[in-house]
Amino acid sequence: MKTAGLLDLQVNGYAGVDFNDTAITPEALDHAFGAMRRSGVTACLPTLITAEPHELTARFSALDAAVSASRLGPAMVPGYHLEGPFLNEQEGYCGCHPQSAMGDPDFDTVLDLERMLDRPILIVTLAPERRGALETIRRLKAAGKTISVGHSAAGFGEIRAAADAGLSLSTHLGNGLPQVLPKLENTLLAQLAEPRLSAGLIADGHHMSPEALGALVRIKGTDRSILVTDAMSGAGSAPGRYRFAGMELELSAAGRVANPGGVGLAGSALRMDDGVRNLVAWDIADFETAIRMASDNPRRAIAESLAHHGITLDPGDVTWDNDLRVVSVDGGGVA
Questions:
Q1: Cross-strand bridge partners of residue 17
Q2: Distance from chain centroid for Cα 255
């Protein structure tokens, strides 16, 4: 079976390589990107998480230089995903992001970060309830960014207003939330109810159960559901301890990523091809639909941003065997 190549909109690292590491090298990136291609991924948005301004500057500079100098990076990376620092710092919403580095959305901060880069920031994840968010969303949208809600407590009215301003995506919907939420007046339902939002979903069985994932897909609809990994450096690697954005995390034998001894998740070890197989095995989607959720849907989600920046993204071809294992990957990436 032959399909289009997969696109991962949220990936923090892979195959032992942390994309948030200022010591990242072109060789390390080629190792990570090569492993990603073997899982059917022909393009991705390396994702940097919340950090102090000087740390984000250093991390973006190092990552962009390594991408430019690598063999696979120029074709596989059309741009980046900035997840934070404009998030909700309250417990439960902040996740593994450093609370002290969070602040209100600011257009100039994003543009200052992007000014030094060879490729654009294509997605910005923020919390729409923060002060100045709506104006920032409007300005970022006009500058060619896809705006996503994540690590947020925004309710129905705030989500609606943010969508009016240009919000179009939910980052890892169902996660970055407290374990206890108001029964009906909560941001999960608000995001599910907003028809203009597509939803990034992590199909690893740890961020949510297969039953919960299936329910979210049925409510949101398969055309608005996007498979993402939120992978960190342990993805595609053996169980053990790995670095992620200055943190030491533990990948268990069961594939769960968390702070050592902690209960909270911190990224995933999911491969995109495993995510596709999981959707099929859990009877959430057939193979063709799962591929659309990992290929067509993410491309459509950032299509306006790609066009704004004059970027053409060729999906390439992936050949799968009857067990839904990737046999070969041909072409794909930034044309």
A1: 14
A2: 18
In terms of DSSP bridges, do strands 6-11 and 41-49 run parallel, antiparallel, or are they unpaired? parallel
| 269 bridge partner residues | none
**Per-residue pLDDT at 335:** 81
- Asked if residues 290 and 298 have their Cβ atoms less than 8 Å apart, the reply is no
pLDDT at 259: 80
Determine contact, residues 153/126, Cβ cutoff 8 Å.
Answer: no
Q: What is the pTM of this model?
A: 0.96
* Number of neighbouring beta carbons within 10 Å of residue 53: 14
pLDDT of res. 261: 66
Catalytic residues: 230
**Euclidean distance between CA atoms 127 and 114, whole angstroms:** 20
Instruction: Using only the alpha carbons of the chain, give its radius of gyration.
Output: 18
Look at residue 266 in the predicted model and tell me its pLDDT.
81
Low-confidence ranges of the chain (pLDDT < 50): none
Q: How far apart are CA 2 and CA 10, in angstroms?
A: 24
In one-letter notation, the amino acid at residue 249 is L
pLDDT of residue 258: 81
**From the centroid of its chain, how far is CA 127?**
15
